[in-house]
Specification:
- The protein is an all-beta fold.
- It contains 1 helix and 20 strands.
- The protein has one helix spanning 239-242; strands spanning 24-31, 34-41, 50-56, 63-70, 81-89, 95-102, 110-116, 124-129, 139-144, 147-154, 158-164, 171-178, 189-196, 199-205, 216-220, 231-232, 244-251, 254-261, 271-280, 283-286.
- A 4-stranded antiparallel beta sheet has the order 1-2-3-4, with no helix packed on it.
- It is globular.
Length: 299
């Protein structure tokens, strides 16, 4: 087995071209013997340039695979906000990218869909919706037994977990809606979901804009619930080691927390905070590490 590269949380990844890897707000999937990541290209600040695609054998060294989706007209124009690219492979083998699609004032609040024949694209933008009429901003995805799910933050109603249509290009139904305990009128944003030992674990961030906060998690025996109390991912007051969760991904025998340390003035240089995350005996624990490799997770 080839030697695994070291991951240093809080330090930028540099791709095979010697450029800062635009791995912001990413989606991550295992494809064969490599991980593919789709990230927000922030070289133009908060307005849409492209969704960049990279691949890696060790989550430390990244190869640029090209721009999976580029700015065009209308909803994916250069004046738009396109965030949180998440990708699922349908049972028929095609790849669907889900996106937060918005205007600069965040009033559009829609989820967008694009489709491709290969994980790296190019993706063809299909269109967007307010799922079942609800607002949709930060999103996450989940897949189980060929069924796709969308996690979507709705500022008016909470955090929705939707079942996708069979073609993954739209929402079919609401599975559950979760809200914060301290502020039950709203939910958490930047959601991500994993399954482990017969339970589902859902992670999210408070609604504090570019500022970091103490991110939370909850769990349930079924996607419909009942969902437990929200609890801290990391030690209190660390603001989740100054990061916002984007994805929690199964890697080897464990999980990896993938977060963003947003720098609003230089979004393209926002640092990744990636750390091993433990889920054991129904509990979640995230601890700081100066460096680590996926070999430690049995990968």
């Amino acid at each position: 087995m080839a030697e695994r590269g070291a991951i240093a949380p809080g330090r930028l990844f540099v791709d095979d071209r010697g450029r800062t890897a635009q791995l912001h707000g990413i989606g991550l999937q295992r494809v064969g013997d490599r991980w593919f990541a789709w990230g927000e290209d922030k070289t133009a600040g908060d307005r849409f340039t492209a969704v960049a695609c990279y691949s890696s054998a060790d989550l430390a060294r990244w190869r640029y695979e090209g721009d999976a989706l580029t700015s065009g007209d209308g909803e994916i124009g250069a004046d738009r906000v396109i965030e949180r690219p998440k990708v699922l492979q349908r049972p028929d083998g095609r790849w669907v990218m889900l996106l937060h699609v918005d205007t600069g004032d965040y009033s559009l609040a829609r989820v967008g869909y694009a489709i491709a024949d290969r994980p790296e694209g190019p993706y063809e933008y299909v269109g967007s919706e307010r799922p079942l009429g609800n607002l949709s901003r930060d999103i996450g995805v989940f897949q189980e037994a060929g069924v796709g799910y969308l996690l979507s933050e709705d500022r008016d109603e909470g955090l929705h977990l939707y079942r996708l249509r069979d073609d993954y290009l739209g929402v079919a139904s609401v599975v559950a809606t979760l809200r914060q305990q301290a502020r039950p009128d709203i939910g958490y944003e930047s959601p991500t979901l994993v399954a482990h030992d017969g339970r589902y674990y859902l992670f999210g961030s408070d609604l504090t804009g570019w500022s970091m906060n103490d991110n939370m998690w909850t769990s349930a025996p079924a996607l419909e619930g009942p969902w437990g109390d929200w609890q801290l991912i990391a030690p209190p007051g660390t603001n989740t080691f100054e990061s916002q969760v984007s994805v929690v991904a199964p890697v080897g025998d464990g999980f990896v927390y993938i977060g963003d340390r947003w720098t609003p003035e230089h979004l393209a240089e926002s640092a990744p905070v990636w750390l091993p995350l433990q889920i054991e005996d129904g509990r979640v624990r995230l601890e700081w590490r100066e460096t680590w490799t996926i070999e430690e997770l049995g990968a």
